[in-house]
Amino acid sequence: MREIVHIQAGQCGNQIGAKFWEVISDEHGIDPTGSYNGDCDLQLERISVYYNDVADNKYVPRAILVDLEPGTMDSVRSGPFGQLFRPDNFVFGKYCIYLQISSPGT
């Protein structure tokens, strides 16, 4: 079985990503708190592709949300599915990871 880590970066990426998690959660029967409330076994068939099962019928997105400013993260957290994410899913501000790609000779 495959597992996908969803990476959302910047304001646009996080706004689109937040909507993505609303849609995918609805498809899999996951409510805004991460609990399974579906009505069909088919909804759970491939749930481990995008979610980690952290407790009995409790799921957390396998996602990393990155931004230089905390404003977008605050809006995601206060949004309808903000409780779905763990606090360590959010990387912003001074904790942002910077990658420097150097070419030969520099």
Would you mind describing this structure in some detail?
With 106 residues, this protein is of the alpha/beta class. It has one domain. The chain contains 2 helices and 5 strands; from the N terminus they run E-H-E-E-E-H-E. The chain has helices at residues 10-28, 70-78; strands spanning 6-9, 51-55, 58-61, 63-67, 90-92. The strands form 2 sheets. The protein has a 3-stranded parallel beta sheet, covered by helices on one side. Helix 2 (70-78) links the parallel strand 4 and strand 5. The longest helix is centred in the N-terminal third of the chain and has 19 residues, at 10-28. The chain starts with 5 loop residues before the first strand and ends in a 14-residue tail after the last strand. The model is unreliable at 99-103 (pLDDT under 50).
What is the structure about, briefly put?
This protein is α/β, with parallel strands linked by helices.
Descriptive key words:
106 residues, alpha/beta, 3-stranded parallel β-sheet, 26% helix, elongated
Secondary structure: elements and pairs:
Layout: E1 6-9, H1 10-28, E2 51-55, E3 58-61, E4 63-67, H2 70-78, E5 90-92
Parallel strand pairs: 1-4, 4-5
Antiparallel strand pairs: 2-3
Shape: elongated
Gap between N and C termini:
42 Å
Question: Strands of the biggest beta sheet: in what spatial order?
Answer: 1-4-5
Strand fraction: 15-25%
* Helix and strand run: EHEEEHE
Mean pLDDT: 87
**Low-confidence runs:** 99-103
Helix/strand/pairing class, anyone? Answer: alpha/beta
Rg computed from alpha carbons, rounded to a whole number of angstroms: 16 Å
Specify the number of helices: 2
- DSSP strand tally: 5
Count of structural domains: 1
Biggest beta sheet summary? 3 strands, parallel
Helix content: 25-40%
